[in-house]
Amino acid sequence: MPLYARNPRIARVCADLGITRELGEGIRRLFSEMRERGLADPIYEQTSSSVKLTLIAVDALPAEVTARLTSSARAILTVLRLHQRPKGTGELADLSGVTRMTATRALAALEEEGIVTWRGNSKRDPRATWVLGQL
Fold this sequence. Notes:
Strand 1 and strand 2 (about 50-55) form a beta hairpin. The protein is of the alpha+beta class and about 140 residues long. The longest helix has 13 residues, at about 70-85. The protein has a two-stranded antiparallel sheet with strand order 1-2. The chain has a two-stranded antiparallel ribbon with strand order 3-4. Helix 4 packs across helix 5 (about 90-95), helix 4 (about 70-85) packs across helix 6 (about 100-110) and helix 5 (about 90-95) crosses helix 6 (about 100-110). The protein has six helices and four strands. The mean pLDDT is about 85.
Protein backbone atom coordinates (compact mmCIF):
# COMPACT_ATOMS: atom_id res chain seq x y z
CA MET A 1 0.00 0.00 0.00
CA PRO A 2 1.61 3.28 -1.07
CA LEU A 3 1.82 6.10 1.44
CA TYR A 4 -0.01 9.30 0.66
CA ALA A 5 -0.84 12.50 2.46
CA ARG A 6 -4.47 13.15 3.29
CA ASN A 7 -3.69 16.84 2.84
CA PRO A 8 -0.73 17.33 0.46
CA ARG A 9 -0.44 21.05 1.25
CA ILE A 10 -0.07 20.46 4.98
CA ALA A 11 2.36 17.61 4.26
CA ARG A 12 4.47 19.93 2.09
CA VAL A 13 4.53 22.70 4.73
CA CYS A 14 5.52 20.19 7.42
CA ALA A 15 8.34 18.89 5.21
CA ASP A 16 9.53 22.44 4.43
CA LEU A 17 9.58 23.31 8.15
CA GLY A 18 11.46 20.13 9.04
CA ILE A 19 8.58 18.74 11.09
CA THR A 20 8.49 15.59 8.98
CA ARG A 21 11.32 14.06 7.00
CA GLU A 22 9.50 11.50 4.89
CA LEU A 23 5.97 10.52 4.08
CA GLY A 24 4.47 8.24 6.70
CA GLU A 25 6.91 8.96 9.52
CA GLY A 26 4.85 11.60 11.30
CA ILE A 27 2.83 9.39 13.65
CA ARG A 28 5.81 7.22 14.61
CA ARG A 29 7.85 10.34 15.27
CA LEU A 30 5.04 11.93 17.27
CA PHE A 31 4.89 8.93 19.62
CA SER A 32 8.69 8.84 19.87
CA GLU A 33 9.07 12.56 20.62
CA MET A 34 6.36 12.54 23.28
CA ARG A 35 7.88 9.48 24.98
CA GLU A 36 11.35 11.08 24.94
CA ARG A 37 9.96 14.04 26.83
CA GLY A 38 8.18 11.85 29.34
CA LEU A 39 4.70 12.75 28.14
CA ALA A 40 1.78 10.36 27.91
CA ASP A 41 1.26 8.64 24.55
CA PRO A 42 -1.12 10.44 22.19
CA ILE A 43 -4.47 8.84 21.45
CA TYR A 44 -4.67 8.09 17.73
CA GLU A 45 -7.97 7.05 16.18
CA GLN A 46 -8.38 6.47 12.45
CA THR A 47 -11.52 5.69 10.51
CA SER A 48 -12.05 5.38 6.78
CA SER A 49 -12.92 9.07 6.54
CA SER A 50 -11.06 10.81 9.36
CA VAL A 51 -8.18 10.85 11.78
CA LYS A 52 -8.47 12.04 15.36
CA LEU A 53 -5.32 12.70 17.36
CA THR A 54 -5.50 13.70 21.01
CA LEU A 55 -2.29 15.06 22.53
CA ILE A 56 -2.16 14.86 26.29
CA ALA A 57 0.48 17.25 27.60
CA VAL A 58 0.72 15.53 30.97
CA ASP A 59 3.85 13.91 32.32
CA ALA A 60 3.55 10.14 32.16
CA LEU A 61 4.72 10.01 35.78
CA PRO A 62 2.60 11.57 38.50
CA ALA A 63 4.24 14.59 40.17
CA GLU A 64 4.39 12.85 43.55
CA VAL A 65 6.39 9.97 42.02
CA THR A 66 8.77 12.35 40.25
CA ALA A 67 9.28 14.25 43.50
CA ARG A 68 10.43 11.05 45.24
CA LEU A 69 13.11 10.34 42.62
CA THR A 70 16.71 11.40 43.08
CA SER A 71 18.46 13.44 40.40
CA SER A 72 20.39 10.28 39.45
CA ALA A 73 17.16 8.32 39.00
CA ARG A 74 15.72 11.12 36.86
CA ALA A 75 18.91 11.16 34.74
CA ILE A 76 18.71 7.40 34.18
CA LEU A 77 15.02 7.70 33.33
CA THR A 78 15.87 10.37 30.75
CA VAL A 79 18.49 8.10 29.16
CA LEU A 80 16.02 5.22 28.92
CA ARG A 81 13.40 7.52 27.40
CA LEU A 82 15.80 8.93 24.83
CA HIS A 83 17.27 5.61 23.72
CA GLN A 84 14.00 3.62 23.90
CA ARG A 85 15.76 0.27 24.15
CA PRO A 86 17.05 -1.92 26.97
CA LYS A 87 20.35 -0.91 28.58
CA GLY A 88 22.68 -2.55 31.07
CA THR A 89 23.51 -1.00 34.43
CA GLY A 90 27.03 0.01 33.36
CA GLU A 91 25.84 1.61 30.15
CA LEU A 92 23.12 3.52 31.99
CA ALA A 93 25.69 4.72 34.54
CA ASP A 94 28.01 5.94 31.77
CA LEU A 95 25.28 7.64 29.75
CA SER A 96 23.75 9.37 32.77
CA GLY A 97 27.10 10.46 34.25
CA VAL A 98 26.82 8.63 37.58
CA THR A 99 28.85 5.87 39.21
CA ARG A 100 27.79 2.26 38.80
CA MET A 101 26.85 2.07 42.51
CA THR A 102 24.70 5.21 42.23
CA ALA A 103 23.07 3.81 39.09
CA THR A 104 22.33 0.54 40.91
CA ARG A 105 20.61 2.40 43.77
CA ALA A 106 18.70 4.64 41.36
CA LEU A 107 17.55 1.66 39.29
CA ALA A 108 16.37 -0.13 42.42
CA ALA A 109 14.30 2.94 43.33
CA LEU A 110 12.89 3.14 39.80
CA GLU A 111 12.04 -0.56 39.91
CA GLU A 112 10.33 -0.15 43.28
CA GLU A 113 8.17 2.62 41.79
CA GLY A 114 7.28 0.31 38.88
CA ILE A 115 8.96 2.59 36.34
CA VAL A 116 11.61 0.16 35.07
CA THR A 117 11.88 -3.61 34.86
CA TRP A 118 15.02 -5.73 35.15
CA ARG A 119 15.47 -8.50 32.59
CA GLY A 120 18.06 -11.14 33.30
CA ASN A 121 18.58 -14.82 34.04
CA SER A 122 20.41 -14.48 37.34
CA LYS A 123 21.52 -11.79 39.76
CA ARG A 124 24.98 -11.69 38.15
CA ASP A 125 23.85 -12.03 34.52
CA PRO A 126 26.28 -9.87 32.47
CA ARG A 127 23.66 -9.50 29.72
CA ALA A 128 20.91 -8.31 32.05
CA THR A 129 19.18 -5.11 30.99
CA TRP A 130 16.74 -2.54 32.28
CA VAL A 131 13.68 -1.54 30.28
CA LEU A 132 11.27 1.30 30.68
CA GLY A 133 7.85 0.10 31.82
CA GLN A 134 4.50 1.24 30.52
CA LEU A 135 4.00 4.67 32.04
